[in-house]
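## retry 2 of 3
previous attempt timed out at serialization; input unchanged, resubmitting
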Amino acid sequence: MSTLQAVELVLLAGCVVIALWLVVLWLRRRSLAAHGPVSPCAVKLPESPRWRLGLLRLGPEQLDWFSVGGVTTHPTMSWHRRGLEISTPTSGETISIPGLDSAVAITLTTHGSEVARLALEPKIYPAVRSWLESAPPGHNVNVT
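## retry succeeded, writing output
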């Protein structure tokens, strides 16, 4: 086997690995979307100086965040709907994060303490606000 053939085989193997990785990410995204609406977002924890790109899913009882490059279908972070509060994005302030177009930042707090900051596309914020303000399924169903 010549050197050229060996290089071609290595490049072919690399292309196959990249193609398989893209298929796995696509299947994971479809699997996540099967259990609730999914949108791109970024999260910044209070102790971290950087934003991490990921996917946000609005579940029936919790807000789930998934790392964008992971293969697991379990959330990396979750915030239970009860006791969760979100801030209003400041008007005119947008954050530039690679992978998100002109994102707005909101703060998630639970029982008065900040748990994370989320950067969302401006059109996604009303959906998250509506999800939070609506009653969880089965909560106060017999209220008259």
